[in-house]
Design a protein that fits this description.
Elements: H1 3-11, E1 18-19, H2 22-32, E2 38-39, H3 46-51, E3 54-57, E4 60-63, H4 64-78, H5 88-102, H6 110-116, E5 121-122, H7 130-140, H8 149-162, E6 167-171, H9 174-181, H10 183-190, E7 200-205, H11 219-224, E8 237-240, H12 243-257, H13 270-285
Parallel strand pairs: 1-5, 6-7, 7-8
Antiparallel strand pairs: 2-4, 3-4
Helix pairs in contact: 1-12, 4-7, 5-6, 8-10, 8-13
Length: 289
């Protein structure tokens, strides 16, 4: 996986916040909990694997007990969260904190180290993973704890609104890609706050634009939405390749050429940034319909 690269970039202060699928974050916890994952072959007989209680993610194999034990950890962690809706950044910070306390090898976990360094992590579709599935089970037991995607929209928009310059490295694409890029339309289209678009765009993807899907959509298309500044378009980069090859090269280059920078610890600044966004929104109301 790419966890080692993300950990290194966070450690150097080069990552301010993360938007990920819930599945990536769920399987990241296996590393902190020192669970056994094995390299296999994607051509293995999946019917036989199912009969033997083995799960396959492409060429990674592990016992279904890994899922059950990770689920148990998540459900235990949920017990110490407030009984009301929260953002996914709050959930992930809490899970990371629990991994720091109970994990065997938390230094190998993006969730755990993000909590240690106060790097907020969001997921754009919280129900689409085993983490969200366990929150759903929690609701059947009578809990009022839910994950509020609208809080995530406001928090990520507040971060982008506050920043002098904004940029993103996209690995693959899908829902997390748009969840970051939409912060600019949220500002100009919905809130009436003109920011002009993002400043930097680097995407590593295996998807081509001619299929019309989100993962292959070009930065040029994003300009038409006000997601990227037109004058920055010539500096955008799309790499058509394997993220597991390209990101390690990019990470090695970055840490060899640039000095570490102070981490912004944006998780601790969320309330102040939301207050700033709300103030800008209210002020703008006076000059628009």
């Amino acid at each position: 996986g790419l966890g080692g690269c993300v950990l290194t970039l966070m450690e150097y202060g080069f990552v301010d916040f993360i938007i990920s699928t819930g599945a990536n974050l769920y399987h990241d916890m296996h590393h902190a909990l020192a669970m056994s994952l094995h390299r296999g072959d994607f051509r293995t007989d999946d019917t036989q694997l199912q009969e033997e209680g083995v799960i396959r993610i492409y060429d990674i194999l592990f016992e279904d007990k890994v899922l059950l034990d990770t689920d148990a950890f998540v459900r235990e962690a949920l017990k110490s969260l407030p009984n009301h809706p929260i953002s996914t950044s709050e959930l992930h910070h809490h899970l990371g904190t629990q991994l720091l306390q109970a994990g065997v090898k938390p230094e190998y976990s993006v969730l755990a180290q993000a909590a240690a360094w106060n790097v907020p992590i969001y997921t754009s579709s919280p129900g689409d993973s085993s983490i969200g599935m366990n929150v759903a089970r929690n609701a059947l037991d009578g809990s009022l704890l839910t994950l509020d995607p609208l809080a995530d929209v406001n928090e990520t928009t507040a971060i982008v609104h506050h920043a002098t310059r904004n940029g993103v490295i996209i690995l693959g694409g899908g829902s997390p890609k748009n969840f970051y890029l939409q912060t600019q339309p949220q500002l100009w289209e919905v809130l009436g706050i003109q920011k002009g678009g993002h400043d930097y765009f680097i995407q590593i993807t295996a998807d081509a634009p001619h299929w019309g899907g989100l993962s292959g959509a070009t930065p040029s298309e994003a300009v038409s939405w006000g997601k990227i500044k037109p004058e920055q378009l010539r500096d955008t980069v799309v790499v058509y390749g394997d993220s597991t090859i390209a990101l390690p090269l990019l990470t090695a280059y970055t840490v060899s050429k640039a000095q570490p920078r102070p981490r912004k610890e944006l998780f601790l600044q969320r309330k102040a940034l939301l207050k700033e966004l709300h103030s800008a929104y209210e002020t703008g109301k006076l000059s628009r319909p």
